[in-house]
Design goal:
- By secondary structure, the protein is of the alpha/beta class.
- It contains 20 helices and twelve strands.
- The strands form three sheets. The protein has a six-stranded mixed sheet with strand order 6-9-10-3-11-12, sandwiched between helices.
- A hairpin with a 2-residue loop joins strand 11 (625-630) and strand 12.
- Helix 3 runs antiparallel to helix 11.
- The radius of gyration is 35 Å and the shape is elongated.
Length: 665
């Protein structure tokens, strides 16, 4: 489970103070709060759709050719014995394939010389034996090559998953999930096809081509030179093609990622598109992306249409050259007819491995571009680990009500470990790429075990502050620390144990209920899983036909929004963080289920630090302290009663939420 599961826990003890108002007023206020929340979600979705195309500038990196070569070498060394065995078997198969044309030339010479039939029979039998040997060796080489390819593909996939899970959430968000999805599906599949099919075939064909050319030179060096000169057309065509292919295929892959990103953004925001009448705009954006993808594909197709006709014509040139030169040498008595026939057959035989090589080289250009995109995740920015904090002089005697002063780092250690659960926000400023400042000098201290509610109008910076507190983003200036260690510098595993952000975004993974919960705590027992589900009020889980082993998804139990959110909250319970940041965690639950879930979570998370982005002010009422955000600044901080008595911004929000006119004095 990452630091972004679920959304808004709204988990206060929920005393009955708010319930003392009349039922009619309470119902009206709930309706108003739900409408406000819906409007906020709609604005956020519309903003996401509008900025989807701007993510192109933040695409994930692409590996350089040198990095791709080093990665390929690393993969080969990881299974070096299988690779060496494949090379040896390919060489033996290619050698066995050379015997046939040479023996056929011998047969011709023996017949012209009036040789005995028994000699021809023996030579024909030898051709048959060599052909069978070539078949068996080639099959063994292909088998070993395929096994090597499958094991190597497994390593590529495992590395990709590890790197993808290690990416900071902010990096994935800015690049767009479409790019990451395209790399993990189409690009990995292209690399897999190359390793499984193209790689072994290329090895076999390369070995055959080299041995055949060597055999032609062995028959007669002059005929060998004629054959090589006849292949110059292929060499020039390949040089022209290779100079352009990598860039073209990388552009095609990027265009495919853009198409996937636009489709994903449109599908996820379908309701917002319909509500705001953005259909035509989204259709136009999709068509533009598809048109760009079409042009990129046509360009790579153009490169192939130039290459292949030249190659097809070039296949016959060396055969014709050898026959012409062989005829001249035969007339002068420098060569036998059998040697000329053998050389011509060798060059004719060269067409098949060359055809395979060129076809696979063309595929390698596409797959190398895919491999560069897959391997590019290794170049993605990673959060830097913070040095271990200096030990405080006397942590037990420190006054928890005063802000923590930054400690001078001691000798760096990896990884850094927070000394306590205290969270300090000092002089934080933050701006999203291409936008103005969202946070403007925020200072805040959250004490261990405290329940803090953050309130304010839409756009005040509440959600941005929660992302910084959860370590998803790092501040441009200032610091956000837990136990004197920068939160954004913690390892993902450390961060998950320290701080968890629960938003309204949630995901149900294909698999069983148990699989979905064990993501948070792989060592949890069935009793732990059932207790976590009970803690969040997921009573529906008890009614599933196979209990924890019930499959979830299209082919199993289909979860609705509230059930998916309860699964996300159950994962939070299993992750057992000391600090929970809630942003509309129960927004998708109906009011009755939401209150039941909040009461259950309040009991389970007793004693933990809770920071709630409060869209319903009864959450703020039950909090230990309330922080008021306005225009990116922290303007008020105190208890609910003290802030209401002060008559400031929070008091105005409280009166408005209760339906009281601010004009009434």
């Amino acid at each position: 489970m990452t630091a972004r599961k679920g959304t808004d826990r709204k988990m206060s003890a929920r005393k009955t103070t708010v319930g003392k108002t009349t039922a009619r007023k309470t119902s009206a206020h709930k309706t108003s709060a739900h409408k406000t929340t819906a409007r906020n979600r709609a604005r956020e979705s519309a903003h996401e759709l509008a900025t989807a195309s701007a993510r192109k500038s933040a695409q994930l990196p692409i590996a350089e050719p040198a990095d791709v070569r080093r990665a390929a070498g690393r993969l080969i060394r990881a299974d070096g014995r299988a690779f060496a065995a494949a090379l040896a078997l390919n060489a033996l198969a290619a050698g066995a394939g050379l015997v046939g044309p040479w023996l056929l030339g011998r047969i011709i010479d023996e017949v012209r010389a009036g040789g005995d039939v028994s000699v021809v029979d023996r030579l024909a039998l030898a051709i048959l034996v060599c052909t069978v040997a070539q078949l068996l060796l080639a099959r063994s080489a292909r088998y070993v090559g395929h096994r090597f390819g499958e094991r190597t593909l497994a390593r590529v996939r495992e590395e990709f998953v590890d790197r993808a899970l290690a990416l900071p959430a902010s990096t994935v968000e800015r690049a767009g999930t479409g790019d990451l999805t395209a790399r993990g599906t189409a690009d990995v599949a292209a690399v897999g096809t190359t390793l499984r099919d193209a790689g072994p075939e290329l090895l076999i064909s390369t070995a055959q081509a080299l041995f055949i050319l060597g055999a032609v030179f062995a028959v007669d060096p002059l005929l060998g030179c004629c054959g090589m000169l006849g292949l110059l057309g292929i060499w020039f065509a390949m040089r022209w093609y290779l100079r352009r292919a990598r860039t073209a295929y990388l552009a095609e892959g990027a265009a495919n990622s853009d198409v996937a990103e636009i489709l994903a953004a449109t599908a996820s925001g379908a309701r917002t598109v319909e509500a705001f009448g953005l259909q035509r705009r989204r259709v136009t954006a999709s068509r533009d992306a598809l048109e760009t993808s079409r042009r990129r594909r046509l360009h790579t197709l153009f490169l192939r249409t130039v290459l292949w006709p030249i190659v097809e014509v070039s296949y016959t040139v060396p055969v014709v050259a050898v026959l012409l030169m062989g005829g001249v040498l035969l007339e002068r008595g420098a060569l036998s007819l059998g040697a000329v026939v053998a050389a011509a057959l060798y060059l004719r035989q060269l067409g098949e491995p060359l055809d395979t090589i060129l076809m696979r080289v063309e595929q390698l250009q596409s797959s190398s571009a895919s491999f560069a995109r897959v391997e590019g995740l290794a170049r993605a920015p990673r959060p830097t680990r913070a040095p271990s904090p200096a030990r405080p002089p006397d942590a037990s005697s420190a006054d928890s009500s005063t802000p923590a002063t930054p400690a001078t780092p001691a000798t760096p250690a990896t990884p850094a470990t927070p000394v306590d659960d205290r969270i300090d926000v000092t002089g934080v400023r933050y701006a999203y790429p291409g936008g103005g400042e969202v946070l403007r000098g925020v200072d805040l201290t959250v004490r261990p075990g405290e329940r803090l509610a953050v309130v304010g109008p839409s756009g005040a910076g509440k959600t941005t502050l929660s992302r910084l507190l959860a370590g998803i983003d790092a501040p441009r200036t200032g610091t956000v620390t837990v136990g004197r260690v920068p939160i954004a510098g913690l390892d993902p595993e450390q961060l998950r144990r320290q701080v968890v952000l629960v938003t309204q975004e949630h995901h149900v993974f294909l698999g069983t209920v148990r699989d979905n919960l064990l993501i948070a705590e792989p060592s949890a027992t069935d009793e732990d899983l059932c207790a976590a589900l009970a803690a969040v009020g997921a009573d529906w889980a008890d009614e599933l036909p196979h209990g924890l082993d019930t499959e979830l998804g299209p082919d199993g139990h289909r979860t609705d929004g509230s059930q998916a959110q309860q699964l996300a909250l159950a994962r939070v319970v299993l992750a057992d963080p000391h600090t929970l940041i809630l942003d509309e965690a129960t927004a998708l639950l109906d009011p009755t289920t939401a209150r039941h879930t909040e009461r259950a979570l309040a009991a389970v998370l007793e004693g933990r630090t809770v920071i709630a982005i409060a869209h319903r002010l009864h959450t703020a009422h039950d909090a230990d302290r309330v922080a008021v955000m306005e225009e990116g600044r922290l303007t008020e901080l105190g208890t609910h009663d003290s802030l209401v008595a002060a008559g400031g911004a929070y008091a105005a929000l409280w009166r408005t939420w209760h339906g009281e006119s601010a004009a009434v004095q």
